[in-house]
Every structure is written in structure tokens, then in C-alpha cells.
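Colleagues,

For the teaching module next term, I've prepared a clean inverse folding example: a structure given as C-alpha cells, and then the sequence designed for it. I'd like students to try predicting residues themselves before seeing the answer, so please don't circulate the second half yet.
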């Protein structure tokens, strides 16, 4: 008898635990490939926010959120063997699952996904994610697992299965031999958990990388041969004629022409070099304040912000709407503070001396305050460097606020 449909895919770490539970408990589940931009009408009835996994039960139950789905599946076992021996252990299981889902996986994803080509690569973001992931392992997992075989109690639980699935990409891609030697307790626990039949029956034998993967820049396409250009001369002339009859609207900043500092060269330097030792010195050496201007950008409605990940999503949406100005802008906006007490601030490089033509392509640009900066002033120069390096707290009304997230517009 069908238990229901799981909406997700096998490259998604959060989709694995329900599949493993279903196989172990004999639940008849249909995996409906969902995500990566593909959402059927049925999937959207469960996942209107387009975030996998989701579950549609044969009885009509609709669930989204990985933890809720995993708990519901595990509860189908009459003995609830994976949910602890007491209410206290059940609470501990939920604690570890929540920590892995909200803290560990997001940081690990920012480290691994760009290296796999799944997200755009930014060296500063990847390096920070590596640092944050290792910090979580070293201050939470290593000391705890030095004294405990499993995450909860003295036996394997849902907390182990769920957390192991979320950390698997690390062991498969970036936790090399040296990393494993430096984190023996986490490695011992992971090896133990991922050799359980409930794991291997679906995922197969665990794969432990020896040498961590490195970022490989995409190869540039070879320039077309001259002969090909000659053959294409006639079609090109026709295309040019079409362009003359239907001219494309130009960005207002295009009238400024080319600048001495190539913006793309700066973006490549920022993405591929260490920020303070290499990228920032390159910028100041090439920056010409007669051609470019620097701006402090602050969100006007910080008192309306709630969860920090939602604040980061707000920045992402703003950046998407700025895409028409990609050739004339570079900058970072960071999220500082904590849930229900956070804000947005950052620094932008703008072609020309007026910020409006660059930003008014985004309908929500007026939700931000813009203050022109003077790079000859040490405090303004330091502000730009801090916003682009993300390695110092933001000072708000004299109080340091830690940077918890951020995005780069490039």
C-alpha cells in the first residue's frame, strides 16, 4: 500500500534520510524528481516556497521541512527505535537535527557547492565557509564525540542518520586525509554511522576523499578562426542591419565610456585572491575616484527584519533586480546581528559620481540609504575594506555586531 510521495532528488542531502527510513521500515514511497527548477503542479501544493524535500501522504498529509518529514517517517516504527528512550532523548535528537540543518549544512554547502561548480565561485566566501564549518566541527562535534559513541544516548538514533547525511558532502569532497587526522572523533562517528545497513542500503558504501577537491577556473572558449569570420561576414552584416532598425536601449552609464580600471579584472581579482593581502591592494592601486565612486549602502527598515536567513534572501532578491547594472557596479551587503535583531549594510563601487543611474534599475532601490564615501579619509577607506573582507564586526551605535551572512554583487 502506498505511503505517499517524496518530492526531492538524490543530489539533495536532505532527501536521503526519508528514503533511508522508508526502505528500512518498509514504507512504499514514490520519489518524484523535484528541484533544480522543476516543480510540478502537485509538488507546488506541498512546496509553494519551492524548497525541497516535501511529502504528500496517501492520506492527504502535506509536509515540508526535512526534520518534520524525517520525524514523521521514523514514527511509523511501532517501537520508535530511532527516536530515543525518553522525552529528554527525543528533545536531544531534535536539537542535533536542527543544529545540523540550520548551522552545519548551510556553511558546508557554501564551501563545497562552488568547488563542484554548483554555485558561482568566490574565494572569500568559500574560505569563510571553510573556516565556519571547521569551527562548528571543532567546538561542537569533536569535544562531544570524544566522550560519546553516538549523538544521543548509547545507541544509533535518527540524529545520527540525519546529521551524517547532511555532512556527507564534506567527507566525499573536502575532508581529506589531513582533515580527518585533525578531527578523529567526528571521523570515527561518521564512519560508524555510514556503515549501518540503513545507510548503505540506499547510499552505498561511504566514500572518503583523500585529497580535497580544488577550485578549477572554467576554460575560456577558443576564439573563432579568421576563416570562420569571413564566412559569417554576410550574416553579421544582416544582423547589424537589424540592430540599426531596432536599436536596443542603452544603460545610461554607457555614455561614460570605458574606464581605465577594468571592472571585470577587479571582480576576478576579488573572487580569486585573498581579500586583504592581495585583492584590496590591487583595488586601491587601480581605483580612480574621477571615474568611479564609493558608497555606503544601508537598509532603511532594519526594524522589520526577522530571521537572518530571510534577511540574506532579501539581499539576494535585490541583487537579482540589479542585474542590468552588472557592468557598472560591484559591492557587498552583509547581514549583521542575530535572529529578530539584525540589519543590512555594505559598500559599493559605482561607475561615475552618481549612484542613482546604477541602482534605479531595481524597483526596491529606494529601500536603501546611500552615503558617498571619500577614499582619502582613513575611516571611509577602512569601512570599504571591512565590508569587502567580512572579517570584522560591524559597529552599530558603538556596539560591535557580528557578520552572520552576506552576498557579493559582481
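(Answer key — instructors only)
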Amino acid at each position: 500500500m502506498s505511503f505517499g510521495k517524496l518530492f526531492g532528488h538524490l543530489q539533495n542531502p536532505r532527501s536521503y534520510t526519508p528514503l533511508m527510513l522508508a526502505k528500512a521500515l518498509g514504507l512504499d514511497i514514490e520519489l518524484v524528481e523535484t528541484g533544480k527548477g522543476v516543480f510540478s503542479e502537485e509538488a507546488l501544493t506541498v512546496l509553494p516556497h519551492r524548497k525541497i524535500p516535501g511529502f504528500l501522504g496517501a492520506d492527504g498529509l502535506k509536509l515540508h521541512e526535512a526534520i518534520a518529514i524525517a520525524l514523521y517517517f521514523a514514527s511509523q516504527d511501532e517501537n520508535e527505535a530511532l527516536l530515543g528512550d525518553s522525552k529528554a532523548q527525543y528533545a536531544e535528537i531534535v536539537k542535533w537535527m536542527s543544529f545540523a540543518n540550520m548551522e552545519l549544512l548551510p556553511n558546508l554547502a557554501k564551501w563545497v557547492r562552488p568547488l563542484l561548480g554548483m554555485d558561482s565561485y568566490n574565494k572569500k566566501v568559500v574560505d569563510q565557509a571553510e573556516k565556519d564549518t571547521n569551527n562548528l566541527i571543532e567546538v561542537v562535534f569533536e569535544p562531544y564525540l570524544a566522550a560519546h559513541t553516538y549523538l544521543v544516548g548509547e545507541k544509533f538514533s535518527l540524529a545520527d542518520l540525519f546529521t551524517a547525511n547532511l555532512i556527507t558532502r564534506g567527507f566525499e569532497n573536502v575532508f581529506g586525509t589531513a582533515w580527518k587526522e585533525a578531527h578523529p572523533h567526528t571521523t570515527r562517528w561518521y564512519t560508524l554511522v555510514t556503515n549501518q545497513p540503513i545507510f548503505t542500503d540506499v547510499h552505498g558504501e561511504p566514500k572518503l576523499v583523500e585529497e580535497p577537491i580544488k577550485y578549477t577556473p572554467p576554460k575560456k572558449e577558443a576564439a573563432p578562426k579568421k576563416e570562420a569570420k569571413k564566412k559569417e561576414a554576410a550574416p553579421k552584416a544582416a544582423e547589424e542591419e537589424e540592430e540599426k532598425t531596432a536599436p536596443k536601449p542603452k544603460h545610461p552609464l554607457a555614455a561614460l565610456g570605458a574606464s581605465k580600471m577594468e571592472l571585470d579584472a577587479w571582480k576576478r581579482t576579488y573572487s580569486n585572491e585573498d581579500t586583504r593581502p592581495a585583492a584590496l591592494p590591487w583595488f586601491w592601486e587601480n581605483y580612480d575616484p574621477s571615474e568611479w565612486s564609493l558608497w555606503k549602502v544601508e537598509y532603511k527598515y532594519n526594524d522589520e527584519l526577522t530571521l537572518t536567513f530571510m534577511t540574506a534572501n532579501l539581499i539576494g532578491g535585490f541583487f537579482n533586480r540589479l542585474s542590468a547594472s552588472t557592468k557598472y557596479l560591484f559591492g557587498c551587503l552583509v547581514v549583521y546581528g542575530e535572529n529578530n535583531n539584525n540589519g543590512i549594510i555594505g559598500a559599493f563601487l559605482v561607475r561615475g559620481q552618481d549612484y542613482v543611474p546604477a541602482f534605479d534599475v531595481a524597483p526596491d532601490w529606494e529601500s536603501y540609504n546611500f552615503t558617498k564615501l571619500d577614499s582619502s579619509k582613513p575611516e571611509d577607506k577602512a569601512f570599504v575594506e571591512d565590508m569587502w573582507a567580512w572579517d570584522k564586526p560591524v559597529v552599530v551605535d558603538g556596539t560591535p555586531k557580528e557578520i552572520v551572512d552576506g552576498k557579493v554583487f559582481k
